[in-house]
C-alpha cells in the first residue's frame, strides 16, 4: 500500500478526543425507526464539506473513536472535514430490532444523508462505510437512493460478499439452528451470558477459541468470521483498545445472517423483496449512482475475504472503467483498518487522500 500525504498543512496541535465537541442528534428513518446522528467538531470550524461515517453490524458509531492516541475522526477533523457518525438500526446504542440490509438501504441511509445536507447547507457529501454499513449503504447508492453522495470509501465488503469456508458452514448450517432458539446473538455474552442458550454458546466458544483471555473478543470471532481472532490481528491492537472492545459489541439479529447467507450463495447482494424501491439483485444492472467508490480490503481479513472487494471493483470497472479504485492493505484484517495501533500511519493517510480527490 502506498499513499501520498495530504497537501494541507497539519495543525500545530493535532486533534485528540479531549478536543471533540460531540452533539447527538435524534434522527427518524423513513419507516419511522428512531436513529441518531453524532456530530463531532474540533477546536476550529470545518473548512471542507460533510463526511458521514457508517459502522457495521452489532456495534455503534463509537467504533470509529477507539481509545487510541489518534483516531480516524481526529484525522478527518484536522483535515477540515465536517464529521458526522450514523447510528443506524444495527447500532447497539438503539433498541435491538430484527433488521435487514434492505431496511437500512431504503430507510436509514437516505434519511441520514438528507439530515446532514440540511444541517450543513451542503449539496453533496462523502461517506466512509464499514462492513454491513458498507453493504447497505452501497445497496442504497446502487439503487439510486443516494444521488447526493459523490464519494464512498468502503471497507471490507460492498456488493460481493466472499467469506472463508468455515464461515460458509457457520452461516449456512449453524446460524439456522441458532435462530430457532434465539432471535439474536451477542458477543457481549462472553462477559454476561444471561440464559441457557447464551451460556452454552459461550462454553462452546471457550473450547474452540483459546487465542486470548478477552471473552468478548473470542465471541466476536465466533460470531463474525473464521479467524483466531477474526476481525483484527492481536498484534495490531494495543492493550487499551483490546480491552475497550468488550463494551463495543452486542446484539445482532439472526435475520441479518439469513439474508447474508442468501447473498453469499448468490455471489452478490440480493434483497429480501420485502422493501419497495430496491431491485432483486444489485449487480443485474449498472449502479445507479455517480459516486466514486474507493474499495479497501485487508489482505488478511478473515470475516470477508479480500476477493469481496476485488469482485466489486471488477463489476464497477466493467460498467465505468477507470472511475473507481481498489486498495488491498497488506497485513490488515477487518476492523484493525480503523482500530489498529499503526492505522494513523498506514491507513488513515490513504483514506484522507481519496476523500480529497
Kindly estimate the percentage of residues that lie in beta strands according to DSSP: 15-25%
Question: Which CATH architecture of the largest domain?
Answer: 3-Layer(aba) Sandwich
Q: Could you tell me how far the N terminus lies from the C terminus, measured between alpha carbons in angstroms?
A: 17 Å
Helix fraction, binned, reads 25-40%
GO molecular function, one term: hydrolase activity
Protein name: Alpha/beta fold hydrolase
Domain AB hydrolase-1: 50-157
Keywords: FAD, Flavoprotein, Hydrolase, Oxidoreductase
Structure description:
The protein is α/β, with parallel strands linked by helices and 357 residues long. The chain has two domains: 17-163 and 273-356, Rossmann fold (3-Layer(aba) Sandwich); 165-254, no CATH class. The protein has twelve helices and ten strands. The strands form two sheets. Strands 1-2-4-3-5-6-9-10 form an eight-stranded mixed beta sheet, sandwiched between helices. A two-stranded antiparallel sheet has the order 7-8. The chain is globular and about 50 Å long. The model is unreliable at 1-7 (pLDDT under 50). Keywords: FAD, Flavoprotein, Hydrolase, Oxidoreductase. This is Alpha/beta fold hydrolase.
Amino acid at each position: 500500500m502506498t499513499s501520498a500525504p495530504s497537501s494541507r498543512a497539519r495543525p500545530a496541535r493535532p486533534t485528540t478526543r479531549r478536543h471533540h465537541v460531540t452533539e447527538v442528534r435524534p434522527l427518524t428513518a423513513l419507516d419511522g425507526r428512531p436513529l441518531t446522528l453524532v456530530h463531532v467538531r474540533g477546536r476550529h470550524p470545518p473548512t471542507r464539506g460533510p463526511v458521514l461515517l457508517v459502522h457495521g453490524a452489532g456495534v455503534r458509531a463509537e467504533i470509529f473513536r477507539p481509545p487510541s492516541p489518534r483516531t480516524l475522526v481526529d484525522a478527518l477533523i484536522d483535515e477540515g472535514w465536517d464529521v458526522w457518525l450514523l447510528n443506524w438500526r444495527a447500532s447497539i446504542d438503539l433498541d435491538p430490532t430484527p433488521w435487514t440490509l434492505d431496511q437500512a438501504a431504503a430507510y436509514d441511509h437516505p434519511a441520514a444523508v438528507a439530515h446532514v445536507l440540511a444541517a450543513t447547507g451542503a449539496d453533496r457529501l462523502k461517506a466512509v462505510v464499514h462492513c454491513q454499513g458498507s453493504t447497505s449503504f452501497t445497496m442504497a447508492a446502487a439503487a439510486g437512493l443516494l444521488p447526493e453522495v459523490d464519494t464512498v470509501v468502503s471497507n471490507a465488503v460492498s456488493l460481493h460478499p466472499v467469506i472463508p469456508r468455515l464461515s460458509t458452514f457457520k452461516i449456512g448450517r449453524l446460524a439456522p439452528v441458532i435462530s430457532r432458539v434465539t432471535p439474536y446473538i451477542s458477543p457481549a455474552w462472553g462477559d454476561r451470558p444471561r440464559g441457557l442458550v447464551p451460556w452454552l454458546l459461550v462454553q462452546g466458544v471457550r473450547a474452540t477459541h483459546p487465542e486470548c483471555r478477552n471473552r468478548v473478543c473470542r465471541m466476536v470471532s465466533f460470531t463474525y468470521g473464521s479467524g483466531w481472532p477474526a476481525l483484527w490481528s492481536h498484534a495490531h491492537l494495543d492493550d487499551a483498545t483490546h480491552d475497550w472492545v468488550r463494551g463495543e459489541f452486542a446484539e445482532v439479529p439472526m435475520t441479518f445472517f439469513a439474508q447474508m447467507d442468501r447473498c453469499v450463495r448468490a455471489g452478490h447482494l440480493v434483497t429480501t423483496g420485502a422493501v419497495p424501491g430496491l431491485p432483486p439483485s444489485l449487480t443485474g444492472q449498472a449502479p445507479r449512482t455517480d459516486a466514486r467508490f474507493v474499495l479497501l480490503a485487508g489482505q488478511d481479513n478473515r470475516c470477508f475475504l479480500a476477493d469481496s472487494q476485488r469482485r466489486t471493483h471488477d463489476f464497477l470497472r466493467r460498467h465505468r472503467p477507470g472511475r473507481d479504485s481498489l486498495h488491498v492493505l497488506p497485513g490488515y484484517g477487518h476492523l484493525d483498518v480503523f482500530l489498529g495501533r499503526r492505522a494513523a500511519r498506514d491507513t488513515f493517510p490513504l483514506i484522507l487522500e481519496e476523500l480529497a480527490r
